[in-house]
Structures
1.
Amino acid sequence: MANSTAAAAPPTGPMPVLSARPPWRETFVSLRVTNYRRFAAGNLVANTAVWMQRIAMDWLVLQLSGSVAAVGVTVFMQFTPMLVFGLWGGVIADRYSKQRLLICTQTAAAALAALLAALTLTGAVQVWHVYAISFVLGLVTVVDNPARQVFVNELVGPRYLRNAISLNSSIFQLGGLIGPALGGILITAVGGGWSFVINSAACLAVVGALFSLRRDELHHSPAAPRGKGQLAEGMRYVRRKPVIFWTVVMVAVLAVFAFNMPVFLAAYANDVYDVGAQGYGMFNALVAAGALAGALASTRRTSVRLSMVVGTAAALGVVQALAGLAPGEIAFSVLLVGIGVGNLLFITAANSLVQMSSNVQIRGRVISFYILVLLGGQAIGGPLMGWVVEAAGPHVAMMISGLVPAAAAVLVAWMIARHASLRLRFGLRGRRPVIAIVNRAGKAGATL
């Protein structure tokens, strides 16, 4: 008989909604937790090095092959394991110690980076080597990502969870701000091989941080018992919760069309503005700078709702489409910052909503499905948008990458409103215009 974790687990607790914005001194409140502070410090070093490695890998493939589509294939190889095995990663994360899983995955990532460094520095590297290592890194990610996402709750507990999620995004993007710039300089100065050496050392630093955590201060999640049908159970759970389901739908659309910036930026750096590896790194750094601002802004939210996820997706799509129409490099660079802001506001809202809407005992499977859609969509979108770039040009491809998500957001909003029998009502409050969401009877509707 199938084990019903969802039924046995306690109901999802109410999501915290603040009546006022938290004071600025509370922006980094989760860093007061010693374990999270150690984990975050290791992550900052590792994320900077990972971004350096990503820039070096993309540029290495472009140099070896001369094809932007080949960069898309690299993305495909890294994310394909998530398409095939992603849901199993969630089952593993629900069953075993997240701390031990992360120690294993980071050790494996260090070994793979060291191998890629040896191949590159000796001049023996070929495109298929990068593809193969990208694929194995994808296998590591299958377990690492859901374990990392759920482990945040064990580090800080439910009280600081949303703040920690936003800070994790800030740390990721701070690494994305520093890493590409350093990576571009390093490629120009001494070659990309040393980026892989640095990333290998950084992964080992994360392992050290994980070993240093105080186990008695962790908020241990109950392990899910073994049982048949646990993958299907996670899928049913997602389908039964509209807030999670529609969030995942929007993530899927943006992952395929909008979240393939390495493909677009490589084309703009190489074919449109001819700015080389340093320019490519700088374009990535501009996106990351905007994303860092967006991640910090997300810590100021009083609540997270489905309407925020859909609205942010629409706004991001519009800005990304405008980038395709940018008349010059300066305008394009400014819009890249806007893309970064919209990207992170969307991702942090979606991630927070999915995590806080899920029961703890099934959260690993829900998060693994979320990551499956996020990374699997990029696996499909990488070569797809690479083909569009080569067939129609970077400008048209960038416009398509924004217009499709914007249209999808409008369609999803219409479907949600229709299902809930909601409509927009326009009116005046004194001299001030008011737009409200109401049900068909004219009463105020529940905010989504």
Note: The chain has 15 helices and two strands.
2.
Amino acid sequence: MSAQPIIERRRGWCPGVRRPMATGDGLLVRLHPLSGRLTAGQARIIAEAARTYGNGHLDITARGNLQIRGVSEGTFPALLARLEREGLVEPEGDGPNRLTALSPLAGLDPFDHGDPLALARAIEDKAVHLDGLPAKFFVAVDGGGAMPLDAIGADLHLVATGKGDAIAFGLATAEGLHWIGTAGCGRAPEAVLSILAGFAAMRLSGRTGARRLRDLEPGLPEELATSAALAPAAVPQQRPAAIPAGLLPTTSGQAVLLALPFGRCQTAQLDQTAAWSERFGRGEIRLSFTRGLLLPGVAGEHVAPLMAEAADAGFITAADDPRLSLIACPGKPDCASGLTPAPTDALRIAETCGDVLTQRMSVHVSGCPKGCAHPGKADLTLVGRADGRYDVVPHGSTRDMSSLHLSIDEIMTRLLPKTSDALGRAPERSR
């Protein structure tokens, strides 16, 4: 058992079990289960550990990971030992805790092409000993099915095109995914390894200081694509965004996707999900990048009772719930960087302005300028300020400038007319 000394940890690392991050409510311990899958037994162990060694609060992240919050310096060693006994601790080292991200439907999606789970495992096996990759680096492996990973923020996107066994390789940019080439499914792991090794070598030699592929200097992505011997780029078919909650057809029964407001989960809810997975499904829980929990293998006659019990337990079961239009970080006081109580303010917006949000307007409420919960753009981004108000950024991200600063009450008043245009015009007293 090995853990980085707590005194040596610094903010900005991608936390894991061995490398927790200090936050406003204690240490944050992030689990990265392979392929985002847990057995019912593992889920119960995690819930018990969160109650015993943390404050009972859990988060499901936008990469399909699970966080235990409120761990203290005193309880951390026992938590680490408990999770390591259960095989829930990431490998040692400073690289990515888990290299690949998948749709929670991988292996069950009737619209997938090929086997994304097998491809992800082959990539993990080939790159496991690769040095020089930043801890936050990851690869999205997308089977081309019902839950696209386009917005997940990966460094490298692999998408099955459905044209033979061709896998499209893409890089994230401010304008969307930029396709740099293709490879057959059999060659894809080797091509990924070539790109990753090339990027690591560029960093170690000083050719680039970029920590993510999307930040590489012009010409370097093309150099990596050439070294990987990729065939000419093919643009995958456009697909609707993944639904965040509800019923999904699979190759074996139904899958029920249960959402949680902003991914915040209580230990009792995780325990209940474990029980439902055994009672209604096949004893498996899949963590979703939509910040929810997916239960596969649910028979048709069990869908209605499961949905009813989940709604009573505080889960979101309908894709048009206004809370799903909002993204919020833990905010103040749970996060040491938080300047505003982002989840509380986001829920106030959902309760007051639900008619606007059901029109598929996306709102990002960030407790500080870091924008951890959503690094990209939203229809409306609110950035917490030290004075308790928010910088208002229409059609932008937390990195964009704003000359409009409003309280949460003023923001809700302006949303009530069912148009966001009013948020672009501020009275002089609010500037």
Note: The longest helix spans residues 188-205.
